[in-house]
Write a structure and sequence with these properties.
The structure is a homotrimer of 402-residue chains. Chain A starts with 22 loop residues before the first helix and ends in a 6-residue tail after the last helix. Chain A has a four-stranded parallel sheet with strand order 5-6-9-10, with helices on one face. A two-stranded parallel ribbon of chain A has the order 1-3. With 402 residues, the first copy, chain A, is of the alpha/beta class. Chains B and C meet through helix 13, helix 14, helix 15 and helix 17 of B and helix 11, strand 8 and helix 14 of C.
Chain lengths: 402, 402, 402
């Protein structure tokens, strides 16, 4: 947001070595331009966090910037603000991280071996070893082979290595996988074609469309493995990454300019759903950035396929209005019990309470509308409120009754 | 909905011979899982019907299932629940059925020859003899020839047979035709190309895209015939049928997994509208499942073309929120008098009052919003309410003043 | 709207020489069918104008038509209703016209040389000399050469002539350019290809797709010139013009049947934004008719690119509901300060107050919703109200502090 108003990324510390950054000055820049965030969820998350996590009730502004910076700085030095203390204060049931397929989960091991009871789970995110469009694909697949002591240039051993890593993650508590899918297609290839494309992928010799097809085939393989091992499968679909070439070149990926694009869910998921979608033990949770597909495609599909659940509004749409549009457009065809509830998807630990509070407020506003319109009575609204705020996510991610 | 939660279709009596079904058990399964329908129009229709048609005020649940089943069963045996009695109790002006082009309308004849005054009309639905993508196309066209005593393998006689059947339906009271259009294109072909494609269609020798083009051409022929005979033309566009191949194979078509898809109305209707759209005597009523086209395409088109009216929200969108989105997005460009009002499109006779009640509630909510925002005064709102609830449909389907 | 209900365009004076028109009768036709406009912004603009500009409080109807016609006619003869008097009464800061690149701005000169202080600015609209799909392209480019005394069949001199005309407009007060873009692509061509396509364009020898590519290239040239001369660049994208061939043939362009179409903003603007989008001195204001791109594409893009601002809802969407959908879908990702505020885009001078009043009402309704949902407090809402109603447009069009 600040970049869109002409602030250089370096001014915000991006692309600047930590030791050369002036955090107080960066915070002042944010505070002095806080009005630019008016009406955005960022504003609401930040203000909730200041008040409810840090006890700062002054409004963020150029004048207050230094004082608030000090208040935050003081708090962070206090033992009450150590991660485990906050985890308990935030009253979290579970926190799941997202980890590459090659990750050794060392940090998870430390937590597990400690005497602390907080539940921190890994999530299996194999994009780098699954999507041949990634620049590091061949290299990552070879590393996968080294870790598993298999020859992953051989397609069968590659599949076996994926199974092994899934099992490893599961043994460390993982209940789900997660997949970034820029262009959705999940048509099953013939065994012969899959092997050929994989060989050529390892030589970095695929066209963009071949790479997309092979990735689609591999996503169906992941779904098959989910049937075997019970891991919930998450698909985050339809984001055009790094559309600003200047920023990409200067600062690398994940620095903004990731923009949603249209998705055809009916044709895109056809291969996967016709392969495993009738299995009601399997859970495939889908996330979209194309709201025009809510009522037209996703809700009717979730209202039909046993394996399919709709994830909550994602990224740009994880906001008060975004959630209102979501309920407005999905509930009538999908009902409430084909929804996966809410996962905050945040990278900012401090923002977890704010994210869930916003979701719960939006749920409450939605249910108030339903009761007012006589679509449901208060007793049913209470059942749905509990489901959406808590139980749905527990159920979707196989975390019940643990 | 039950299938999406893991109930087998057989458990619901689908694919089971009637004599082997246990309706009480099926009803119990529905009742015991009634919460899955919370927030859906199915729930609202069912509950309205229980209360207002059957006088059952208990909430549907596992505990109440048997008692409610008995209450319904008792009611259905009572003369007050015979179709004609209900027709009168429901205070219906007109009920129109949908009938294939080859149908002899024998049931309609019985009603017409009876001393009962209820108005039951057929509707001409020639998909099977018009859309070469249908597996029964060639066979149906031959049957059409037999019925009309014409050689329908000859294109001119085929067209003549269609005219004869339309006339037959009209003589039995029909005022409209209805067309399922999976992929919309209505470009007029040259006479030569149309004849060639038709010949090959009769040999089942068309590609999918050729079949779509020929169907588009035939839809324009239907529009021309509507100009001649005054039948209102209805187009239901943009549904991908039977996307679950397992269910299709095991249970046949129309068992769910029909999912909406995007439609380009501007290019799709261009051929038809540029051929007959300036004729203000003709009425073409369009139904969409792609709400993104409401404000972008359909409303501006309806606000221009004399022949075009917008049908009410269809299928997945025939719901409280769906109707709100419809009014929100179409009225400002199309006004109220290019709308076709409401037809309930139901296959469940008992649900007719529920359907119209939901529409009228949604109309009332919309008009309340308009009056609150000072867009119209109460006097005008009353005029629009009467139009939308009753007169618009009468006008759209040429049923006025009969 | 009247045409859509079967009134011939001739009945409304379209295609009829002025001296043969009967304005009183045409006005009566409008008044007698005024109910057809219920719920449309046209109705709200007209009624506001009658009451607030003309002091006519009677409702428009067949009965009142003559009296209201007389009242308007009398008013228009009064000096208080001369354009400059109304300009002052309407309390306008600035009025910008849209003028072809070849226009001599003679009328602007008259105003500038007069002793009247009202600020009337031209806007540079070079579609005819920039878009090779236009039938008058080659002819217009030659005229451009004559005006600038350059050989515009030479690509470099053509570019130079465009620079000269921009400078001429700027010297007459222009702060912006405006571009109609039917199909959006802005990929930069190689210099060689651009020159080749331009040569062939001057021979009217381009395919539709080549013409679109060359136009896209030229739009990027315009953006480069905007970097040089500071003119704000406006893009109005995605309208299929004159879709009714009968009306086009009989009455010419701009007689209705212009229908919006889908736009891919991410790929469509990629070339331009990657060329100049990181320049925070430049302002590119975009207008869309495809609302499905608000939250999915445009808001995230405006929330990133320094050069990009979102224009207000355009044409069919410049309405109470259209504005509500706009705020609902853009603010959360773009904030308020990447929006360009409101320009009424009207061709009807009398309607200017009505247009701005409707915008301000819609802003007020939006802010009321924000305050109610506790997204902002009243103090912030007042800041945003002032910004959206006045300052944003002033800022977007470089009209501040003049």
């Amino acid at each position: 947001m600040l970049y869109s108003h002409g602030f250089a990324l370096e001014q915000l510390g991006v692309g600047v070595p930590p030791e050369q950054r002036n955090p107080r000055e960066i915070f002042w820049t944010l505070a002095a331009n806080w009005h630019l965030f008016l009406g955005t969820p960022s504003q609401q998350w930040m203000e909730y966090t200041l008040v409810n996590v840090f006890g700062v009730t002054r409004k963020l502004s150029a004048e207050n910037a230094n004082g608030i910076y000090d208040a935050i700085d003081d708090a962070l030095k206090h033992p009450d603000f150590r991660p485990r203390a906050l985890f308990e204060r935030f009253n979290l049931d579970v926190l799941a991280t997202t980890d590459g397929a090659l990750d050794d989960l060392a940090h998870h091991n430390i937590v597990r071996k400690s005497d602390w009871a907080g539940k921190i789970l890994p999530t299996f995110r194999p994009d780098a070893v699954l999507n041949p469009s990634r620049p590091d694909f061949a290299q990552s697949v070879k590393q996968l082979g080294e870790i598993c002591d298999l020859d992953t240039e051989n397609f069968d051993q590659y599949l076996e290595a994926l199974r092994i890593r899934r099992q490893f993650f599961k043994s460390r508590g993982a209940t789900a996988t997660d997949h970034d899918v820029p262009d959705l297609t999940t048509d099953l290839l013939s065994d012969l074609e899959a092997r050929k494309l994989f060989s050529r992928a390892m030589q970095d010799d695929l066209t963009k469309s071949e790479a997309t097809r092979l990735y689609g085939h591999m996503l169906v393989q992941m779904a098959h493995m989910s049937v075997e091992d019970g891991l919930v499968m998450q698909l985050h679909v339809g984001c055009e990454r790094s559309t600003n070439q200047t920023v990409l070149t200067a600062f690398g990926p994940d620095k903004g300019a990731d923009i949603p694009k249209r998705v055809n869910w009916v044709s895109g998921l056809s291969g996967m759903l016709n392969s495993v979608g009738n299995n009601s033990e399997l859970k495939i949770i889908v996330f979209t950035l194309d709201e025009s597909s809510y009522a037209r495609e996703l809700a009717p599909m979730a209202g039909h396929w046993p394996a399919l659940r709709l994830g909550p509004p994602w990224w740009f749409h994880d906001s008060l209005n975004g959630i209102e549009r979501y309920f407005d457009q999905v509930v009538e065809s999908a009902g409430y019990f084909n929804l996966a509830g809410f996962n905050d998807d945040t990278r900012a630990f401090m923002s977890i309470p704010a994210r869930h509070d916003l979701w719960r407020r939006a749920v409450a506003l939605h249910l108030e509308k339903q009761v007012s319109a006589d679509v449901m009575d208060v007793a049913d609204a209470n059942v749905v409120a509990r489901w959406l705020a808590h139980d749905a996510a527990q159920d979707a991610y196989n975390l019940r009754g643990d």
